[in-house]
Amino acid sequence: MRPVSYARATDTAAAIAYVGGDPHAEFIAGGTNVVDLMKDDVARPSTLVDITRLPLGGITPSATGIRIGALARMSEVADHPAMQANFPAVVQALNESASPQLRNMATIGGNVMQRTRCTYFRDVSQPCNKRAPGAGCAAIGGVNRMHSVIGTSPHCICAHASDLAVALVMAGATIHARGAGGERRIPIEALYLLPGDTPQRETVLERGELIEAIELPASTTARRSVYLKVRDRRQYEFALVSVAAGLDIAGGTIRAARVALGGVAPKPWRAHEVEAQLIGKPANAQTYAAAAAYASTGMRGFGENDFKVPLTGRAVARALAMAEAVV
Amino acid sequence: MFGKFSRRRFFVRAALPTVAATLGVPNLFPAAEAAAISRLQPSGPHPVPVTLTVNGTAHALMLEPRVTLLDALRERLRLYGTKKGCDQGTCGACTVLVDGTRIDSCLSLAIMNEGKSITTVEGLASGETLHPMQAAFLEHDGFQCGYCTPGQICSAVGLLNEKRPTDEASVRVWMSGNICRCGAYPNIVAAVRSAAGAAS
Question: Which CATH class for the B48-123 domain?
Answer without folding.
Answer: alpha beta
